[in-house]
Design a protein that fits this description.
Elements (H helix, E strand, L loop, with lengths): L2 H14 L5 E7 L5 E7 L11 H4 L8 H9 L6 H6 L4 E3 L9 H9 L8 E3 L12 H13 L3 H17 L5
Parallel strand pairs: 3-4
Antiparallel strand pairs: 1-2
Helix pairs in contact: 1-3
Length: 170
């Protein structure tokens, strides 16, 4: 069903800048195990592997197509393959980058790594990258402690709203 969208996005990425269409990045998953997360490539090849908040201090490595993909969150679509591979779930705490050791340690201490990471989560619908790491950890801990199917559905609907309004998108 998503094949036409994937094809259009792939073509736009290829026409905009050289390099692969899919970007792979090492992330911390369930029980602290590493896995490769998939995204549509939104940056020029050779961009350093840094968290989004640190990237904002550098000249923008984001491509023209990448700006559109990021603002609409379409760059996240390939993570559906991570869900099919059971590396991630649709809803859960967002997986940290492999080199975010302090964040990972806080999540481990809070018991958050016992839950599968998600494409979207409670922290994402409550501020996304605008939140400090300690706030993200508290929101993720709250989610893990209060998880229900209804909460997941609420997060899905809030995610759709956030994507449509582009709140917190970078």
């Amino acid at each position: 069903m998503l094949a036409p969208a994937f094809a259009c996005i792939a073509l736009a990425i290829k026409l905009d800048s050289p390099g692969p269409i899919i970007f792979k990045q090492k992330r911390v998953g369930l029980n602290g195990q590493f896995f490769n997360i998939y995204k549509f490539r939104t940056m020029h090849c050779g961009t350093p592997d840094l968290p989004t908040d640190q990237m904002q201090k550098l000249p923008s490595p984001v491509t023209r197509t990448g700006r559109v993909l990021r603002s609409t969150s379409l760059d996240e679509l390939p993570q559906l393959f991570n869900v099919l591979k059971a590396d991630m779930s649709l809803v859960g705490p967002r997986p940290a980058l492999y080199n975010q050791t302090e964040l990972t340690a806080r999540r481990k201490a809070g018991g958050i790594l016992r839950y599968p990471p998600g494409i979207t989560g409670w922290a994402q619908v409550n501020g996304r990258d605008e939140l400090a790491d300690d706030v993200k950890v508290e929101l993720d801990r709250w989610y893990c402690d209060n998880w229900t199917y209804w909460l997941d559905w609420k997060i899905v609907f809030l995610t759709v709203k956030a994507v449509i309004t582009r709140v917190g998108a970078v």
